[in-house]
From TrEMBL, chain A:
InterPro entries from the UniProt entry: NADH_UbQ_OxRdtase_su1/FPO, NADH_UbQ_OxRdtase_su1_CS
Keyword Coiled coil: no
Enzyme class: translocase
Protein name as it appears in the record: NADH-ubiquinone oxidoreductase chain 1
Organism lineage string: Eukaryota, Viridiplantae, Streptophyta, Embryophyta, Tracheophyta
UniProtKB/TrEMBL annotation, chain B:
EC number, as in UniProt: 7.1.1.2
GO cellular component, one term: mitochondrial membrane
Record localization: Mitochondrion membrane
Pfam families: Oxidored_q3
InterPro entries for the chain: NADH_UbQ/plastoQ_OxRdtase_su6, Nuo/plastoQ_OxRdtase_6_NuoJ
Membrane disposition: Multi-pass membrane protein
Keywords, sorted A to Z: Electron transport, Membrane, Mitochondrion, NAD, Respiratory chain, Translocase, Transmembrane, Transmembrane helix, Transport, Ubiquinone
Species, as recorded: Nelumbo nucifera
Official protein name in the record: NADH-ubiquinone oxidoreductase chain 6
Length: 325, 211
């Protein structure tokens, strides 16, 4: 028991870190191809060793800490961000029974972890002792909190259709049909709220480079910024993972063909997660940035009422026609 | 052992909330308290409440405190720190809360409380009802929306009043702001707002008099 659990944990974290590293490369290359240029392709063939070069650069860089920053908080904030994005992977099911911790309240656990993710950002911004970093952190945090409400309501919508917070249960309830097909607008809203939750484009004004010079990250130099960055991308993959578990049938086969049954469930899950991550990058390349008041306005005045307006009919229809599970 | 691992940091952090010099540290110390309380709830088997704690207490309440406290100017806040003058009132409040704690303590775990000496400790369990195991969520839902539905609905106007109160308290004269009406702007027709006049090219335009 004392070997199996750490081995399982390593088996989730190591591929996740590799995935994050290559997602950074994938983002640069995909955005480049959208913009009709080639991304990084000097380092390895097709630029595949680029994450290695990036990691090496970041490790060898000189760490600078601002003079009057609160030392402990300054160091711990990116660590907290990164830790939270890794910890949430404990409940994500990769295959039938392939989940680190089969919590009966797994959905609520994911929600709790994304609520806690706000802290890393606020503390990073405040402890940098710089007005711009603080402003960027506050804006980022306010946006995350607003879109979290919308995420919570959409999670409730899926929860009503399933009847249990257990993520494996949710995936197995999608055997007949994925939830993304009858509840497709819910999937779209969930995806957009996930974009805003992880501060990704087009909602990334708090950390845009042209506007606020990387927002709350501005005072971090090498490993601090690397950790924040990795935490953000790990969060991105986590949100893609929860998108697939909740609405695209996490490890269910695509159609009931014998071919797709031969591919192991975790590979099917990974393919769907990759598709959602690609969608993240595609959206970043395609759309202009929302201004901050527009993004907050749409979060509170558009997404919150819309998600609420999806909970009510779904629950009403389920109760009326006795389709409650 | 897990109990002591969880509860001792909670106690220490609770004390540090009052003792920390930096106000931001003093607002960040409730986070270990909430986290450890959530762990204690997990040990008690209340998984739903244990997950609601991070969401509500850490993710919303402590964040709101943090937003306010971070606006303070740290040097000024740190020098005005004479803690002992708070002792009379805070001591009384602390004693009242300590006394209230004994109302909630479960009498079965303290069998020698003077109030319950006459009852027996026999309990009649219906084993047939224990065959199906209900999750925490199901049990809460079964009770909260049926027998205690009034208690569930009453907090919502309370929260509404609190929200409106917060907005009313902090609203400036934002009602006097000049705003554009977008629909009116889009409905402007150039034919009705711009007048065209032809000027006669033969008569010279009037020049201002130079003297």
């Amino acid at each position: 028991m004392y070997i199996a659990v750490p081995a399982e944990i390593l088996g989730i974290i190591l591929p996740l870190l590799l995935g994050v590293a290559f997602l950074v490369l994938a983002e640069r290359k995909v955005m480049a191809f959208v913009q009709r240029r080639k991304g990084p392709d000097v380092v390895g063939s097709f630029g595949l060793l680029q994450p290695l070069a990036d990691g090496l650069k970041l490790i060898l860089k000189e760490p600078i800490s601002p003079s009057s920053a609160n030392f402990f908080l300054f160091r711990m904030a990116p660590v907290a961000t990164f830790m939270l994005s890794l910890v949430a992977w404990a409940v994500v099911p990769f295959d039938y029974g392939m989940v680190l911790s089969d919590l009966n309240i797994g959905l609520l656990y994911l929600f709790a972890i994304s609520s806690l993710g706000v802290y890393g950002i606020i503390i990073a911004g405040w402890s940098s002792n710089s007005k711009y970093a603080f402003l960027g952190a506050l804006r980022s945090a306010a946006q995350m909190v607003s879109y979290e409400v919308s995420i919570g309501l959409i999670l409730i919508t899926v929860l009503i259709c399933v009847g249990s917070c257990n993520l494996s249960e949710i995936v197995m309830a999608q055997k007949q049909i994925w939830f993304g097909i009858p509840l497709f607008p819910v999937l779209v809203m969930f995806f957009i709220s996930c974009l805003a939750e992880t501060n990704r484009a087009p909602f990334d004004l708090p950390e845009a480079e042209a506007e606020l010079v990387a927002g709350y990250n501005v005072e971090y130099s090498s490993m601090g910024s690397a950790l924040s960055f990795l935490g953000e991308y790990a969060n991105m993959i986590l949100m893609s993972g929860s998108c697939t578990s909740l609405s695209s049938g996490g490890w269910s086969p695509i159609l009931d063909l014998p071919i797709s049954k031969k591919i192991p469930g975790s590979i099917r899950f990974s393919i769907k997660v990759i598709l959602f991550s690609f969608l993240y990058i595609w959206v970043r390349a395609a759309f202009p940035r929302y201004r901050y008041d527009q993004s907050m306005g749409s979060g509170r005045k558009v997404f919150l009422p819309l998600s609420l307006a999806r909970v009510v009919p779904v629950s009403g229809v389920s109760v009326t026609f006795q389709w409650l599970p | 052992m897990i109990l002591s691992v969880l509860s001792s940091p909670a106690l220490v952090s609770g004390l540090m909330v009052a003792r920390a010099k930096n106000p931001v540290h003093s607002v960040l110390f409730p986070i270990p308290v909430f986290r450890d309380t959530s762990g204690l709830l997990l040990l008690l088997g209340l998984d739903f409440s244990a997950m609601i704690f991070p969401v509500v207490h850490i993710g919303a309440i402590a964040v709101s405190f943090l937003f306010v406290v971070m606006m303070f100017h740290i040097q000024i806040a740190e020098t005005h720190e004479e803690v002992l003058r708070y002792l009379p009132v805070s001591g009384i409040i602390g004693l009242i809360l300590w006394w209230e704690m004994f109302f909630i303590l479960d009498n079965e775990t303290i069998p020698l409380l003077p109030t319950h000496r006459n009852t027996t400790s026999l309990r009649y369990t219906v084993h047939a009802g224990k065959v199906r195991s209900w999750t925490n969520l199901e049990t809460l839902g079964n009770l909260l929306y049926t027998y205690y539905s009034v208690w569930f609905l009453v907090p919502s106007p309370i929260l509404l009043v609190a929200m409106i109160g917060a907005i009313v308290l902090t609203m400036h004269r934002t009602t006097k702001v000049k705003r554009q009406d977008v629909f009116r702007r889009n409905a402007i027709d150039s034919r009705r707002t711009i007048m065209r006049r032809t000027t006669d090219p033969l008569t010279p335009p009037r020049r201002p008099c130079l003297r």
